[in-house]
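REQUEST ID: PR-0412
SUBMITTED BY: lab tech R.K.
PRIORITY: routine
TASK: structure prediction, single protein chain
INPUT:
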Amino acid sequence: MIEILKKYNFWDTGVKGTGITRPIYLDQLARLNTGKTIVTVTGLRRVGKSFIVRQFIDHLIRQMKVPPCQIFYVNLFLRELGFLRDPDRFQEAVTSWQKNLNVDTGQRMYLFIDEVQEIKNWEKLAGSFFEDYTAEYKIIITGSNSKLLSGELATYLAGRSHELRVFPLSFNEFCTFTRQAGTRETLLTYLTHGGMPEIVLADNHFARNNLIETTIDSVIMRDIVARYEIRNVRLLKKIVEYVSTSASDEVSRNKMAHLLDESGKRASVHTVSDYLECLKEAFFIHECPVFSHKKNDHLKSGPRKIYLNDLVFIKKDHRFGGYGKQLENLVYMALKRKGFTISTVRTGKGEVDFLSEKNADRAYYQVAWTINDPASETYRREFESLLSIQDHYPKHIITMDDLPLPPRKGIRHIPALDFFSSDN
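STATUS: complete
OUTPUT:
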């Protein structure tokens, strides 16, 4: 056992498989490296969680001078480590590590468990290490589900656990990964190629398309079908195809229920809703709630806009809303990445794409491909919706236009390149 563990740990060698550093997540993990807590690193499959964890291990060894033998790392998707899915064997492996590496059990020990959901009853295992008052374990786990830390363990660990959510590459990260300057041309490439690290770095078009399809299949089969014991896989795939052609569009669950199931019958609204929730929990899509400015509250029912976690999964058919919809999806994800709570706003004059909120910060955003003609219908529509909101919070319009138009009644026009290039 110990020889297999040595093969995939970094006790005798430097840390391998770190990839291109993503400082924003590395910094967040460093800030969370305090106290006795469990850190969950979550995000869409193949978004780079394992690379970030290994980057942090490298940071601990190189920068924090943590002895490598104090760090235990396992990736449960590796075939040779499959035996660790049994919690008793996992406990045995930890004991073997401590004995054979002469681990100082009086000092902090790090347990990194990649794809922790592969362990049967992993919550009890993690809770056992956390509760061990004879030793200090710092536990960092990864998984591809937003409900990874839920149920009884979440209640038990309230205030003693932190979630770090990993997103596809930001525009600045995309520029770093592809070694391109932050120009409008690069932004257009980012708009169509997306920000999934492995896909972005693919050598050719064939490899890229293969990675896209295998990622979608993995999300469907491993993160949804296997986890939730889905029976109607055909219907689930049809829903994935539907949302992949409906980025930034309002999606009615009643309308989607007209999709046929395996027997040729109309799918139930309940089943469609369940499958959409599964896609949300697997980070494939996001659903944006609707805020009624008139009622000053979120609407409980009705269609909501769907946004893809990454634009590389978009499919273009007769429902494709054009590049303006792609830009809107990209802005949504940029705000999400920065930690904002986002809503669509309904007003008496129409709709505002986004209301972003975080603590006391609040701002409104409209997104359009262009408004360079003040006499156009698009210009009138985008400004009119924002002007109908009578409060003092900042209001912006984001477009692909190269130069910003002068502010109008406090509404600021931001070229998309400026918006995506800024860290603020």
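NOTES: DSSP finds 16 helices and 15 strands in the chain.
REVIEWED BY: pending
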